[in-house]
What does this fold into?
Amino acid sequence: MQALRTAISLALAAGLALALPAVAADQSIALAGVLGSKALLVVDGSAPRAVGPGETHQGVKVLSVTRDEATVEVQGTRRLLRLGESPVALGSSGSGKRIVLMADNQGHFINTGTINGKQMKYMVDTGASVVAIGRPDAERMGIKVDDSQKVIMSTANGSATGWRVRLNSVRLGDVEVLGVTAVIMPEGMPFVLLGNSFLTQFQMTRTNDQMVLEKRH
It folds into this structure.
């Protein structure tokens, strides 16, 4: 982990392309398919319903539909739905402000959350400049790197090519941050490293084994 943190920090210092360019709910929404210009929405586990742009179904307004995505508005908040992704919570808008974490017996803050609606296991790492994700996890989350900007990083095993991406959503419990910069690493990783591109959105306080993150805005 130290080598990975060092590689990311070195890349930033060198001026490479790393520079910037769930609480359960009573209902959920998922994109089951696309029928012409309409999205097949599954709300709260009900049968799929074809809903076109400008139409509303059970409080979910469809804004736009593409081949494998739909943008919807729920309770005044826009959500991007993708085919095959986990259902998005409706009753929890991600407007929470406070995250409380407890350290494990090695002093690490490890927990679970979601990235772009997909579950992930993360470790808080204040030494990492940006969020770092192994490529296998990125592919599982539907993060495409083929068209992303490449970055070259120095590691203990030599140079490695990674990819800079912007995550639509990083969510811990009922706290959500949109548009988070991340680096996709070529190899697999045991955790997503939750680095400062996410953490700087919060005021951080640590007392013994407890860490509290208070959202700044």
